[in-house]
Structures are given as structure tokens and as C-alpha cells.
Amino acid sequence: MRNPTSSSSLSFAPAAKPRVSSSSTAATPLSEFGREMQAGLARSPRSISPKFFYDAAGSQLFDRICELPEYYPTRTELRILGECAGEIAEQIGPNAEIVEFGAGSLTKVRLLLDALRAPKRYLPIDISGEHLEAAAERLKADYPKLVVQPIAADYTMPLVLPAPMAGSGRRVGFFPGSTIGNFEPEEALAFLQLAARMLRGGGLLIGVDLVKDPGRLHAAYNDAQGVTGEFNLNLLRRANAELDADFDVDGFAHAAFYNAPRQRIEMHLVSRRAQSVSLNGERFGFEEGETIHTEYSHKFTVEGLRALAARAGFRPGAVWTDPEKLFSVHWLAA
């Protein structure tokens, strides 16, 4: 898949009123993904939540992204967690229950579990239930004394967690990968407020990508192998498979660039030509250059994240970073 060579090479058409027309196909009830995709195509500018990236194929593609040489966040965060695991474990305390938001492949939590003293239970939450169940089974085999209870759910929505187990210590949230950056600022605050209430008496361990040289950021989201592009385009393949849509995947291109004034990476799917797409009995017209916005990845300063956490009701504590200050891990007491 072709990636743009630089952000300046992109030319997006101005936002226009979406062209929607009825089709003779009878509309059928849609899943949450279907409802949000239909609403996202009807609005201007068009957009869809990045949470829908993570079907089984998307989760596997993201695992590949994490191994790319250009994609520094994963290996840098793993290094911080590995080198500072003892100090982090001291903050958390013994017999903890760990709640991981957006658990994915359950790779990073292993460093945490290895350092903790007698962790009691692990509650991974992820929207991709199939991928989560498979990863949880592998973790159970490797940690036979740990109660592993996966929860297939949207962690950005209010949910009721199981009651704490007898003899458990603090309930601690784990939110690695700088996923907090995918939210708009007001959404990030709302999520942290929700987490602070859910984890009251415990805390949150959160990984946060830091502001840095735009060139390094551009390379991380426009890898030479094109895996990030395939990850982005997989959203259209998923819509075709699950929603009976008719996206011509080759008719769209991956585009990612750094918006410096807003300190965020923006990812889009760009229509290569004038075309139309059918979804649930409606057709949506695209002009050449029109986009579907698929993801933000906001970058933070250490001070900015601490201020946001305090507004949400946390008490900011220790912060760990790598020598280059590419990434940070924060302890927030709830």
C-alpha cells in the first residue's frame, strides 16, 4: 500500500456536504459498528472511531505495527516497564487486582505481573472479544496462580466490574500504549474521570507518548513496509465483510501526518477518485481527495498529562521516562 512520503504531499479536499442517496435495498438492523459507520459517512467531515480498528485481523496488524523499526512507542514503553518494574510494583503494593483497559495481546502486563507481589486477579477489557479470549488463555497457562477474567466490552463506556476478591489489595488500572492520545481532549478527561471513580482507593498506571520531533512521529505512522496503511484500510475490509458494504479498498489511500499546533498525529483514509459506496441501503458519494478521519494520536508533555489527571480526580505521583524522553509512564493515585 502506498504511503505519502511527507505530510506536505497531502492535499485534502475541503469538507463538503456528504452526498447520500437511497437505494432499493431494504435497510436491516445494524451492529454498533454498522450504526457508527453509517453515521460517520453521513456527517461532514466524515469520521469513524478508532475502536473499530480492532477486529481479529486489525488486532493482528497492530501487533505487527508494534514490532516495526519506525514504531518506537511499544519498545520504549516496554523498556521503561522492564527497567522500572520494581519501583512500579512498590507503588501498587501486594495482592493487587489489575484492570487493563484496551488489553490487546496482553504483552506489556506480563512485565507488571512478573514484578508484582502475589497479584490476585487480572481483568483485561477489550472490544475485540475473540482476540482477547485467545490472549487470555495463553496468559492463564503462564500464570496458573493468577485469576484471569477477560471482559469483552467498550472500556470507554460505564461498566460494572466484578466485586473485589477476598483478600485482594488495591484495584489498579493499567492503560499502556498511549491510547489516551486517541481521545479528543474532552474525551480524555471524561475517560480519566470514569477511571478515577472505578479505581477509587487504588490507582492508574498509564503510558503516554510525549511531544517530539515531527519527523520521528511521521515515520512512526508511515512505515516503510506499509503495515500501518494496511491497518487503516482494514477498517474498510471489515465494513465489507460485516456490514455488506462495497468499499473499493484500492480506491482509498492511507494518510497520516503530524498536526503540530494541536500536537497530534491525524490518520485518514483518502478517496483516490470520485466514487460512491453503499452501506445498508444508502449510497455515499466521495469526491477525489475527500477523507474519512479514522484516528487522532495526541502527544503530551509530562506536565500536561499530570494537570489533566489532577482535573479528573487523580493525585499524580511518580513518572518514569526513557533517556531520550520519547515516552512516559505515570502513576496516578485514585
Structure commentary:
A hairpin with a 2-residue loop joins β11 and β12 (282-286). With 334 residues, the chain is of the alpha/beta class. The protein is globular and about 60 Å long. It has helices spanning 32-42, 56-65, 72-83, 85-92, 108-115, 129-142, 185-198, 214-221, 227-243, 302-311, and strands at 19-22, 46-47, 97-101, 121-126, 147-148, 151-152, 171-175, 203-209, 252-259, 264-271, 275-279, 282-286, 291-298, 315-321, 327-333. It contains ten helices and 15 strands. Strands 3, 4, 5, 6, 7, 8, 14 and 15 form an eight-stranded mixed sheet that branches.
**Residue fraction in strands:** 15-25%
Order of helices and strands: EHEHHHEHEHEEEHEHHEEEEEHEE
Unreliable spans are 1-20, 22-26
Assign an overall shape.
globular
The value of Rg in angstroms is 21 Å
Number of strands: 15
Helix-strand category: alpha/beta
> What is the terminal-to-terminal distance?
44 Å
Mean pLDDT: 90
Please summarize the sheet with the most strands: 8 strands, mixed
What helical percentage do the residues reach?
A: 25-40%
- Please give the count of helices: 10
Helices and strands in order, then pairings?
Elements: E1 19-22, H1 32-42, E2 46-47, H2 56-65, H3 72-83, H4 85-92, E3 97-101, H5 108-115, E4 121-126, H6 129-142, E5 147-148, E6 151-152, E7 171-175, H7 185-198, E8 203-209, H8 214-221, H9 227-243, E9 252-259, E10 264-271, E11 275-279, E12 282-286, E13 291-298, H10 302-311, E14 315-321, E15 327-333
Parallel strand pairs: 2-13, 3-4, 3-7, 4-5, 4-6, 7-8
Antiparallel strand pairs: 1-12, 8-15, 9-10, 10-13, 11-12, 14-15
Helix pairs in contact: 2-9, 4-5
